[in-house]
Amino acid sequence: MATVAELEKLALNLSERQRAVLAAHLLRSLPPVLHDEDEGIAEAVARDTEFETNPDLGMSLPQLKQEIERRRD
User: Any idea of the CA torsion for 12, 17, 19, 21, to the nearest 10 degrees?
Assistant: First the structure.
């Protein structure tokens, strides 16, 4: 059986299209990384509780926009 390094070497010799198809097949074979039984509801409730306890954790819409722009630069 081929090792990961051997498979990687073979895969990198494929055309760009072939690598894209292979990558898509491999990604589809994996379980969702962020799959939650409750679709993230528990996380949202926990964050809401944190924010209600300490409103300083949040930011205004203008602050959010400014932070997004800062990270784009």
Answer: -170
The answer on 46 and 16 residing in a single domain is no
The answer to pTM > 0.85 is no
Share of the chain above pLDDT 70, in %: 95
Mean pLDDT of 24-33: 85
Count structural domains, the chain.
Answer: 2
Range of the domain at 63: 34-73
Who's near 40: CB < 8 A, 6+ residues apart? Answer: 34
What confidence category does residue 63 fall into, taking pLDDT thresholds of 50, 70 and 90?
very high
Whether residue 19 is found in the same domain as residue 47: no
- Same domain for 39 and 72, yes or no, is yes
Question: How far apart, in whole angstroms, are the C-alpha atoms of residue 16 and residue 3?
Answer: 22
